[in-house]
Amino acid sequence: MNGTAAVHRVVHITRQWSHHAVGSRTVLCSDRPAAREVAPAGTGRGAAREETGMPKETAVYTHGHHESVLRSHTWRTAANSAAYLLDSLKPHMAVLDIGCGPGTITADLAALVPDGRVTAVDRAPDVLERARATVAERDLTNVDFAVADVHDLPYPDDSFCVVHAHQVLQHVSDPVQALREMRRVCRPGGFVAVRDGDYATMTWYPLTEGMDDWLDLYRRVARANGGEPDAGRRLKAWALQAGFTDVRATASTWCYTTDEERAWWSELWAERTQAPAYADRAVQGGHADAGRLERISAAWRRWGVEPDGWFAMLHGEVLCRA
């Protein structure tokens, strides 16, 4: 499995026109060519909120950006993480990819809109540099990058045909506000596409001692950070609360069972459990001590070498018409 691999999926495009009058103009998100540049930060309603001093919600990324976390993220592709969206993409679309991380999904999306443009944003400048490198390795020239917060996007209304976020809303303090903001910058007739994991649905075999402790601890730390680790089941409800009326809710899974997959997945979690970003929050928040984190890390490694080991996780998805 390689996060930089191209998406080997044929996208069959159906010409479904979506006409929505906006003032004196008509936006055709199905076939409208994307503008070559997105309006700069500091314009639009997002800027107005900052000028009036209204509070801005923040997001706490529970995992942090340890190398083990980024290794996990670089495995992700549009095919294994955004398949529910792909049939809705058209070559000329302008796409906003929120929480782009190291950019593997971003690069796949850019390849699927060759006559359009992708704007990739993340709150972590260092991670954006990884995304730039990923895009450069693919020789893609239709991607822009910016530091941005999903709660207060620095773009005017109706800027993008697709606004996409993968594994983002589980980490934010106000997911409904985040979805409203995503809707604001999406053109009428376009799509807001969101996918998030649901930790309570994670299941594995064999029932290695210590793994239940890992899940319990992670969910408590994530909620203490203001997030919702069981976000997947809530996406439809959040979308409706955000004002969407046309919402397609689906689900998909990741499953790790081969020797290679188990070794990779278990080592990622064994490392990130003791990585400073997560471990410090767990200890300083009074949720665990160093000994407990060490035992959980060891439990992951024991599970990873079980020849009959199997791990699956469910993700909720929503594809919302703006």
Structural summary, described in words:
Helices cover about 35% and strands about 20% of the residues. With about 325 residues, it is an alpha/beta fold. The strands form two sheets. Strands 3, 4, 5, 6, 7, 8, 9 and 10 form an eight-stranded mixed sheet that branches. Helix 2 runs antiparallel to helix 10 and helix 10 (about 260-275) packs antiparallel against helix 12 (about 290-305). The radius of gyration is 20 Å and the shape is globular. The model is unreliable at about 1-25 and about 30-55 (pLDDT under 50).
Helix residue percentage: 25-40%
Number of strands: 10
Encode the helix/strand succession as letters: EEHHHHEHEHEEHEEHHEHHHE
Distance between the termini: 34 Å
Rg on CA atoms, Å: 20 Å
Number of helices, counting only DSSP H or I runs of 4 residues or more: 12
> What structural category do the secondary elements indicate?
alpha/beta
Largest sheet: 8 strands, mixed
The coarse silhouette is globular
Low-confidence stretches: 1-27, 31-57
Mean pLDDT: 84
Query: Strand portion, in percent?
Result: 15-25%
Which features would summarize this protein structure in a list?
322 residues; alpha/beta; eight-stranded mixed sheet; 36% helix; 21% strand; globular
Quick structural gist:
The chain contains 12 helices and 10 strands. With 322 residues, it is an alpha/beta fold.
